[in-house]
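Here is one chain, start to finish.
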Amino acid sequence: MDEKITIQQIAEKANVSIATVSRIINHKGPVKESTRQKVLQIMDEYNFQPKTGQGSNRDAKTILVYMPDFQNPFNASAFEGIQKSAQAAGYQVLILQDTQNDYQRLLKHDFVTGIIVLTSSTQSTIIDEVLNRYPVVVCSGVSKYPSVSSVCTDNFSAAKRATEYLISCNRKKVALLNSSPQFNYSQQREAGFRQAMSDAGLPVNESWVVRLSTINFNIAASNMLHLFQQPDYPNAVFAVSDMYAAGTIQAARQAGLRVPEDVAVIGFDNTEICLLTDPPITAVSQPIFELGFQACELLLERIDYPGTGAKQIVLDTELIVRSSTPLNLR
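Its structure:
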């Protein structure tokens, strides 16, 4: 619509207070998600453009974090790092989940200063949508765009090292519990797993390579229980997430197998889940908080100095050995 509308009229149409509309525009204070969506829809219908400072998105002082899966412990920890950096610089942080209408509406109203993409999906289209309008940084992945900065870990080397550790524990029947190949990290970790097996002269049993579409404890446990109930089952599992590793331990217990005596298990990320299982999980430790913090620092640099070239930061990982794997026999 071309009809002009005021904040007061928006408040009346949405049956909320002017203060609530103001909080939604400025991202200050708690607002129910249903209320926020209702107000944004009215603003969208009337093509309402709020004034932000001098009218430039830089003055908005809001960073948008595209994070489809907030339930993933990795994402929650990385987001804490982003918040720490952003708040120190005086920026607000807004989470955007995987709803296309939602992010297109927000971007249309020019609420944000820059965007951090916290997903490793190779299918994500948000960068295509916003690259020419905002500075963008990818957290926990590498962008296909040379102009986009990123912060990640070396997933290939970390997965290779974890698999080599299982082999060094005299485990030669190693399974891989992986996530969807649409994620860059799952591709890299599978490649590292396969390289370690090849270097050791061990075959990969393709029926033991399990790929799941979501990070979910119950789904992981169900799939691994099926493997453990076969006459020929793996005696080690490299899981690409701690949640998968926890599900694997549950499945082993249901199948009457002991961890690590019958099945050794390694996870990935070293989240708090690793300390909640029995036995505690050996895991590749990623500096998750630091990944988020450094991603935001890169974004702030691009905001303050638009001519700065893209950077790629690769942080180190570490294998934290606990009781889900036997003693290294080498």
